[in-house]
Design brief:
By secondary structure, the protein is α/β, with parallel strands linked by helices. Helix content is 32%, strand content 20%. β9, α5 and β10 form a beta-alpha-beta unit.
């Protein structure tokens, strides 16, 4: 059996392109794992899904998905002001399936997005799926079972973001907090998916300029428009952003423009 970081490597019995590896150091700082995998295992990864633990100050039980990268300084891995290509349709599928599977297990965990906020730096489409938010929760089997079941369902249906050909409206989100409650609600109600999400605290910190907007759009495959969480922003901010995007020929999309599930 092959090993990676001195840990066993597992290959799916029927889907030979699906491989599970384990690392011993912090995932957010283990840059370009795909290049190590190629060098050591002779594989050429095209999509990465990280299964991880999530920590928060509130300690609230949660099941989350999110894209990766940094809008400002790279304090938790990755590169300064650099985003990694997201997997919006895969993340939307995971959110909906996790909610269903968590309900079946009678879990009390909050299922939601997290916004883009940490590394590692990757050169392939990447997403994180996490169980949060305390050691007590990490030790429980039911949350882990829900994550595992949901990811298996995903890869049995969709193995790569770029292979999903449907009419989902893919968006970049703007505004709101770290757990993106509005964007999460939209995905549960509408045929929509979010790639990179820019929270209000990154806007207020001055980290979002024209180049960062362009990067968020570029790293969101099949991008169709910007969704602004209006209630989380000042009216003047909303007006300024709308005008900016309109001048750039970028669609600003609201809930009423989206198809119901």
């Amino acid at each position: 059996m092959d090993t990676f970081c001195e840990n066993p490597v597992y290959q799916h019995k029927t889907m030979k392109n699906i491989t599970i590896i384990t690392i011993n150091d912090r995932k957010v700082r283990h840059e370009k794992i795909e290049e190590e995998v190629k060098k050591e295992l002779g594989l050429k990864p095209e999509q990465a899904i990280f299964l991880s633990k999530h920590t928060s100050q509130t300690g609230k039980p949660s099941l989350t998905v999110h894209p990766i990268g940094n809008y400002g300084k790279a304090e938790l891995g990755g590169k300064d002001k650099t985003l990694v290509k997201s997997s919006p349709k895969m993340m939307a599928y995971l959110l909906r399936s996790m909610k269903k599977n968590a309900r079946e297990k009678n879990l009390y965990h909050k299922v939601s997005y997290e916004v883009t906020h940490h590394g590692p730096y990757m050169t392939i489409p990447t997403l994180f799926v996490e169980v949060g938010s305390t050691e007590e929760e990490w030790k429980k089997t039911k949350p882990a079972e829900v994550i595992g079941k949901t990811v298996v369902e995903l890869i049995e249906k969709y193995q790569y973001e770029n292979k999903i050909k449907d009419k989902t409206t893919v968006l970049v989100g703007m505004g709101g907090g770290h757990y993106a409650p509005r964007f999460t609600d939209v995905v549960f109600e509408k045929n929509a998916a979010f790639g990179h999400m820019i929270p209000g605290y990154q806007i207020n910190a001055g980290n979002i300029d024209e180049k960062m907007f362009e990067q968020a759009i570029e790293k969101t495959p099949d991008f169709k428009g910007i969704y602004i969480h209006k209630k989380s922003m000042k009216k003047s901010q909303v007006s300024d952003f709308k005008k900016y995007f309109e001048n750039k020929g970028i669609s600003v999309i609201s809930s009423k423009d989206l198809e119901n599930l």
